[in-house]
Specification:
270 residues; mainly alpha; 0% strand; globular
């Protein structure tokens, strides 16, 4: 996710990228979601709509926006390592909100994994990209809250429905915010007051043949299937156990960054 996002970060606005990837993911999951709703005879009410709006806002609009901006301001491998620490926040939040028990094995795995993340990040080194690091931490914290809140009703809807409708609700909110960014009021504050990334956010422009494959990958594989598998794991186990899978990222992300981003950079220079 981090590496693919980094390859298009210079061409696609962070909010636009979120909108596109979760729109694709939501549409992909929609037919299956409708089948599940019909099979379970689920009648969505006002509270359900509020729930999907809340999870969509928290996960898609807030957490993933922090994530995309972090990708823009620092290295993809750094964001992947920091974001992988979200189980540290998921576990205590799940304990208080879901009454999930924390056993010694979970605590031990968290401690060992966090120690590894600590050394990989090299906190005693000099970082010039603190803005990206702070944004990545905020993304990890808010994603942990999103995971726990999503777990609360996953048994009622099933993981497919919960994932799909959270995506679509979050995308509707994103679309409204993107349209608001085109109002003259925002243009007034553009010079020196707010980042240009928050003004006149494009919806379609910027998409071309060179990045369409990456956008499809982010929408179908990362957003649609990736989130679906994550919540399926959560449905079968617990929020704490499912989130520990994120500790695989610190091992894989730097390696993929070296193999993929370095190759792309060399190709650009040549």
């Amino acid at each position: 996710m981090e590496i693919a996002s980094k390859t298009v970060a210079a061409d696609i606005n962070p909010f636009q990228l979120n909108f596109i990837r979760f729109l694709i993911g939501g549409v992909i999951l929609l037919p299956t979601s409708m089948q599940v709703i019909n099979r379970k005879n689920i009648e969505l009410n006002r509270n359900d709509c509020i729930y999907f709006i809340a999870t969509g806002f928290l996960g898609i609009v807030i957490s993933m926006s922090f994530f995309q901006f972090a990708i823009l301001y620092t290295m993809a491998s750094t964001v992947a390592i920091i974001f992988s620490a979200n189980p540290t926040f998921t576990t205590p939040i799940a304990y208080f909100l879901l009454n999930e028990k924390i056993n010694k094995k979970v605590m031990l795995s968290l401690a060992v994994s966090l120690l590894g993340v600590f050394f990989i990040l090299n906190p005693f080194g000099i970082h010039t990209d603190m803005k990206g690091i702070i944004l990545a931490i905020l993304a990890a914290i808010t994603f942990a809250v999103y995971s726990v809140v999503s777990k609360m009703r996953v048994e009622r809807y099933g993981c497919v429905v919960s994932t799909c409708f959270s995506f679509l609700a979050g995308d509707i909110i994103l679309l409204v915010l993107m349209l608001i960014s085109h109002l003259p009021l925002f243009a007034t504050y553009q010079q020196g007051n707010i980042t240009p990334l928050l003004v006149d956010i494009p919806i379609i422009s910027g998409i071309n043949y060179s990045n369409i494959a990456v956008l499809i990958y982010l929408g179908v594989v990362v957003s649609g299937l990736g989130f679906l598998f994550y919540f399926m794991a959560m449905e079968k186990s617990s929020a704490s156990v499912a989130s520990i899978v994120f500790f695989i990222k610190p091992a894989l992300a730097p390696l993929f960054c070296l193999l993929i981003l370095r190759k792309l950079l060399l190709r650009t220079l040549l």
